[in-house]
């Protein structure tokens, strides 16, 4: 009796071409998602250290946010616009994380359906409903599902955590803007 390996690589190598393509897309999506998560957390840490450090005086704070002539201080509205621009740019990768979290399970499901069809083809070709006829197709199907979930779950968690972290940073930045400008400047 042949031994069956359930390692991700063995399941990939044993899959048919369509399921291999599905798995490859899901691995690429997962790698891209992890990159986006790491890059966003590093960017958030850098922005916090540059813009929210204690003791940063109003002029230095304004200079970090917006380019204004030295003859006048930045208005509250200019600071808010600059802060919003920085936040929008920093949150750019969140959209990709949401897409990965949303579509990876469906791409995995497509691989699952294809694997089940392969299992039925195995039954038809062998004219047998034994385990040997259906196991390869079922293994493909389940592996595609696992790959889809492995891409989607971290992307979903990253999206949620980063969304909350950026919202907190935005609130802290708004508080800092308000503390560095007077109501008459708004």
Automatic annotation (TrEMBL):
Keywords: Cell membrane, Cell projection, Cilium, Flagellum, Membrane, Protein transport, Transmembrane, Transmembrane helix, Transport
PANTHER family recorded: PROTEIN TOLQ, TOL-PAL SYSTEM PROTEIN TOLQ
Domain MotA/TolQ/ExbB proton channel: 69-164
Entry's Gene Ontology BP terms: protein import
Family under the similarity heading: Belongs to the exbB/tolQ family.
Keyword Transferase: no
Cellular compartments annotated: Cell membrane; Membrane
Topology in membrane: Multi-pass membrane protein
Any one Gene Ontology cellular component term annotated for this protein: plasma membrane
InterPro entries in alphabetical order: ExbB/TolQ_transport, MotA_ExbB_proton_chnl
Main location: membrane
Coiled coil spans: none
UniProt protein name: Flagellar motor protein MotA
TM spans (from-to): 21-44, 94-117, 129-153
Pfam families xrefs: MotA_ExbB (PF01618)
């Amino acid at each position: 009796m042949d031994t069956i390996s359930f390692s991700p690589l063995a399941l990939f190598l044993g899959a048919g071409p369509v399921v291999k393509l599905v798995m490859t897309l899901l691995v690429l999506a997962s790698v891209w998602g992890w990159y986006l998560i790491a890059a966003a957390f590093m960017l958030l840490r850098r922005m916090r250290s540059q813009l929210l450090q204690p003791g940063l005086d109003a002029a230095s704070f304004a200079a970090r946010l917006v380019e204004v002539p030295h003859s006048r201080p930045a208005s509250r509205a200019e600071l808010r616009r600059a802060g919003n621009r920085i936040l929008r740019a920093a949150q750019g990768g969140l959209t990709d994380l949401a897409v990965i979290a949303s579509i990876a399970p469906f791409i995995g499901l497509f691989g699952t359906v294809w694997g089940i069809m392969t299992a039925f083809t195995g039954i038809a070709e062998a004219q047998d409903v034994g385990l040997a006829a259906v196991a390869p197709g079922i293994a493909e199907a389940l592996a595609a599902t696992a790959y889809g979930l492995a891409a989607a779950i971290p992307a979903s968690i990253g999206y949620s955590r980063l969304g909350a972290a950026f919202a907190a940073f935005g609130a802290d930045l708004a508080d800092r803007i308000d503390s560095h400008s007077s109501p008459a400047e708004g």
